[in-house]
Structure formats: C-alpha cells, structure tokens
Design brief:
206 residues; mainly alpha; 0% strand
C-alpha cells in the first residue's frame, strides 16, 4: 500500500515547486489591469504567455501546478486497477479488511472494468460534443484500465494469481500475515536451536 501511495504523493512537492516558481515570476497585474492572484488560474492566457519570458514562465508554472493536482487526484482517487488508486483499493481489501486474496482480486477487477466503461463512455460523448483533447485521453486510459482489469479477472478464473505482478506478492497472498521463517525460507536461529523430540531408531540405544 505504501508503494502505491508513494506515486501520487510525489505530485505534492512537484506542485509546491511550480507554485513557488509561479509566485516568483508572476506579474503584479494581469493584462486587464487587475491584481494577479497568488493562486494560478486554470485557464491559459496567450497574451500573458507571449508578453515575454516572465509571462511565459508564469503560465507554464501555473499550468504545471494544476497538472500535478489533476494527476494526484486522478491517480489516487479513482479505485480502478492498475491506477495507483486501484492498487491502494486492492491493498485495503486484503490487508485492512482481510478479504480473501482471490475474492479481493475479483472485486478489484470488476470495479476497474465498470469504472473503465464509464471513462470510455464519457470520453466518447465528450469527443462529439466539443471536448476532443481531454476526452480522447480519458477514453484511451479507460481502454487501458479495462484491458488490465480483464487480464486480472482471467487470472482469478484460472486460479493463477501467484504469477500476477501485484496479487502474486507474498504480503497479498498471505493477507498481510508474517511468516515465522526467514525471508529466504530458511530456518531462523530460534528454530534451529529449538530442541526436537526425535525418537531413537529401532535397535539403537538412546
């Protein structure tokens, strides 16, 4: 779960970095004579961007701030495998809610396919109603999510989760339980030194 959370969380320092750049280079007033806000606008102002190096970097930094916010929310808040939000969702099912791994994988796969169909449907509708740029990206991501979720669902049906790159992990297979043996599968020192009651072989004096 920590690994899945690490990816989206990297967008926070990146967003803060670009926000600081924005504050350093932003104009005191915009093209209309209004005082420029300390938080960048979501819209791109071509006049500001073409006004000089400071204007260019102001718009660049402002858009980078919003890009990192969108990527953070998109990756973390949508519980669709294989997005980071889907990985966190799967880890929560197994490690926190103690759902059996194969059932958790099935729920994760079905959730991902439902969300992916909604993403593709939204992208197609927006594509024909004037939102060509982002809608095309949304539809393509939806197709990718559906494909990966479909493969996961097939792995569940074949009972082949042990070879899956995510659900094949030891922590997922064991439901978060720790093994009493060492990571390599060898006996620990406590196991080696523990006395064992081994019966004497027949015909050999104890």
């Amino acid at each position: 779960m920590k690994v899945a959370l690490a990816g989206p969380l990297t967008h926070i320092p990146q967003m803060l970095f670009w926000w600081m750049i924005y504050l350093l280079v932003k104009y005191e007033f915009d093209m209309a004579g209004n005082e420029t806000a300390i938080w960048p606008s979501f819209s791109i102002f071509l006049k500001t961007m073409s006004s000089g190096p400071a204007g260019f970097f102001q718009v660049l930094a402002g858009e980078a701030v919003w890009l990192n916010i969108i990527l953070f929310a998109f990756n973390l808040c949508i519980p669709a495998y294989p997005l980071d939000g889907g990985r966190v969702y799967a880890a929560a099912l197994i490690l926190k809610l103690k759902v059996e791994p194969s059932k958790a994988a099935s729920v994760t796969a079905m959730t991902g396919m439902v969300i992916s169909l909604a993403m593709v449907s939204y992208g197609i509708v927006r594509l024909f109603t004037g939102g060509a740029g982002f809608s095309l990206y949304m539809a393509l991501v939806g197709l990718y999510v559906f494909y990966e979720s479909y493969l996961l669902n097939n792995a569940v049906k074949r009972d082949d989760l042990k070879n899956h790159p995510i659900f094949g992990g030891e922590c997922y297979q064991s439901g978060g339980a720790t093994d009493s043996r060492s990571p390599g599968g060898d006996l620990t020192m406590a196991e080696v030194s523990a006395p064992a009651d081994i019966p004497a072989e027949e015909g050999v004096m104890a």
